[in-house]
User: Fold these one by one.
Assistant:
Number 1:
Amino acid sequence: TVGKTFGPEGREPAGQGAAFCQAGDVKVIVATVVNAMGAIVDREGRVVRGHLDRQTGARLSASEALERRMARGEAHAPPGNTTLTVVVTNRKSGPWSLRQLAKQVHASMARGIQPFHSVDDGDALYAVTTSEVDESSLDDTALGVLACELAWEAILSSLQPE
């Protein structure tokens, strides 16, 4: 579930999602299992899952949800939230490049899950390569940008039908 920032009553179902693309010989897939305290946000900035106000049917932004939780005098969000993600590419990359890719993609996931990677979340991301493609016109930065966009798509594809 997602969207538990202001308590379990605002949660809604999520699940697992993935996104894939190929640029030349380089293949990239991002797969994620979303069980976040935060809500899922679409590319237009709208909350599309989580932080649900069941009385009005409205979905709240993270700041609105936090304001409501604080107004009720609740100090902490519920525990037990984890989003697990893996980025897999066939582009040969060394350990430093893979670590940077993991950092870049994990940081970018805050666009699609808000709030993300909070003290109440146990989020983790792994970046791996099969090292099948030695030379590529896709440099480390370009690979990161591509993987970041795929991560957002993977998050959005994790939504279960309402």
Number 2:
Amino acid sequence: MIRLFVAIEVPDDVRSRVDALCMGVPGARWVAPENMHITLRFIGDVDEVVCEDVIDSLLMVRSPAFELTLESLGTFQQGRIAHTLWIGVQRNDALNQLQSKVERVLVAAGLEPERRRYTPHLTIARLKDAPTGRLASFITEHEPFRLTPFVVETFSLFSSFLSKNGAQYAIEETFPLDLTFRRAMGDQG
């Protein structure tokens, strides 16, 4: 069995800027820069045959490249207990369309539909017994938070392996987006 998810990689310069924030909250297990990503769809544990079907399905996704902006900080909570600290993604129709296309092809390939509403974000810490006041102060200290937009040119299928040091991610396959966007922006690179 292999544990899979589909995500957008975050560029190194963005990872460095985000990593510089990652301190000062007791009970936070900070995400390593190399593990920072924006999930499009969690798949879960599948066998090798299903993994190949997933890759074949994702090859059918056609979507333009687009700019993405990370902004604002927040938490996911269960009741009153925060369990995840994240950076939000500015509303982006192209991102939502890409996520919808990924969802459609995966359901067509036989995976169960995702029941949760898509909330694009970049997880920066998992929280355990983080003091509520310190967490609120951390968010207040860094707001308003906004990074320079970056261009998304690909999305990837990742595998996840749990180790004693936490999750380790590996790219199984990368899928290009239509680069018409970059040409329209005047970038020849």
Number 3:
Amino acid sequence: MMRSNPFSIGGEFIGRERELALLNESIRRGQSVVLYAPLGEGKTTLFNKCCSKYKYSKDYVVMGCDLCGTQNMSEFTTRLINSLQHFTTEKANSLFLGLLKSIKTQLSIDPITGTPSINIVFSPEESKTTLEKIKHCIQSSSKQYLLYIDEFQE
């Protein structure tokens, strides 16, 4: 059974003002931050509260990547690309299109429903190269990226 978040009561965020201030200061300085705590302690709530002020800023891109269920580097890379593609800027779009060259797709058809689906596939070597391209894409952007990777233990 999941525990309820002790820092959110009735949708109101409480009791994490110090952590929120530290997180905002780290973002202002351009630092990377790891939020680590047991399940249900409010990490996602803290991140969402912090990023709510950056969400509509022209200087920041706020994005999340949920790794729940990923089993390998290829799946991680696919999830990251799927998250990134929704938030790319005009300049980053051309770099993002370059990423597509390293992507191989597999077309499959569900034997029960007959529904076609396309899966993105990377070899371990291609995953590393693709992650380097994503890093370059983000670093060359004029915006600051705030990326939340959830379920990183996967």
Number 4:
Amino acid sequence: EVLRIDWLERQTVPPPVLSNMQAIPDDLGFAGAALALADIQTTGRFMGQEYGLHETRVAPEAEFLPAARALLAEGANLLVVKAPASDLVALADLPEAADVILMNVAVQDDDLRGENCRANLLHTAPSHAMRADALAQFILFKRWNKLALIAGSYPEDQAFAAALIRAVTKFGMTIAAQKTWEFNADMRRAAASEMPLFTQDLPDHDLLLVADERGDFARYIAYNTWM
């Protein structure tokens, strides 16, 4: 018996970032799926099962749902999906996907676990709220009560920053100061001079939280703050 697993990816054009020190691999996500498949094949042999991984990538300019419908028509019923939230919800709402298992491996939006939750959509990617709650509990345990926050200006940065604020508030803590990172300088050259000035007006703090979901500027903050 062969259990079919489909990797369905909506390719996106990576946004420009200030930090290009670490390129994003072209096979990010799929490489993990391939590694997992090799790992479970050993168990499968004992159980008389074989697992097959099918890869489908949809170009940024192409339509996503027709590609998904083609897979469903072929009999795919376990789809590991790397795609934006809008594509995920549209796929989950297809009548032919009602009894299909969809696994979200990338999108961390909280509303996919709330108002946009779907019965056939499961998540391996942690949500913003899950990450923020875990961090807040650790902060509470360490008694780092004086907090400050720097958040990027992109929507995903603001979403994680909001989750951090909700989490620390829920656990009885407060963020004394918050700043938004709006620089467009090349931090590889300017970090040592720009970061101390940017963080100079922050109040005394035990921990500086950073919401930088694209990996844009956070790497330059450590060891360069005013404190």
